[in-house]
Amino acid sequence: QRQLNGATIAEPAPYRDIQGLEHFDKVIDIDQSPIGRTPRSNPATYTGVFTPVRELFAGVPESRARGYTPGRFSFNVRGGRCEACQGDGVIKVEMHFLPDIYVPCDQCKGKRYNRETLEIKYKGKTIHEVLD
């Protein structure tokens, strides 16, 4: 692997060509790491795409039957988030004289949502799977 502008460049996939590549001027590899002014922001919240995703999950028939609103699918407020980690997906372990470490939440296994919220699926995927 090589690096360009701090990004890792993986080996090319086993394809002969890509059609439509002329429509792209660059590709940026991103993950769900926090960005912006708050540690809870991520690419989905930062770009505004998270709101329609939450609305989509709130519109699923099972969601409507349970009375879930888009807020249920936010990991920033009570209701749908895992309360053990408050929607962070990790638990901070203070190491006193060493840097703190973060371990995956035992309750949600790093998925950030409670069990009831993760029971709602859109096209076979939970909100965690869509955001991951």
UniProtKB/TrEMBL annotation:
One GO CC term on file: cytoplasm
GO biological process: one example: DNA repair
Top-level taxon: Bacteria
Family matches, as SUPFAM superfamilies: P-loop containing nucleoside triphosphate hydrolases
Subcellular location: Cytoplasm
GO molecular function: ATP binding; DNA binding; nuclease activity
InterPro entries for this protein: P-loop_NTPase (IPR027417)
Keywords: ATP-binding, Cytoplasm, DNA damage, DNA excision, DNA repair, DNA-binding, Excision nuclease, Nucleotide-binding, Repeat
Annotated family: Belongs to the ABC transporter superfamily. UvrA family.
Protein name in the entry: UvrABC system protein A
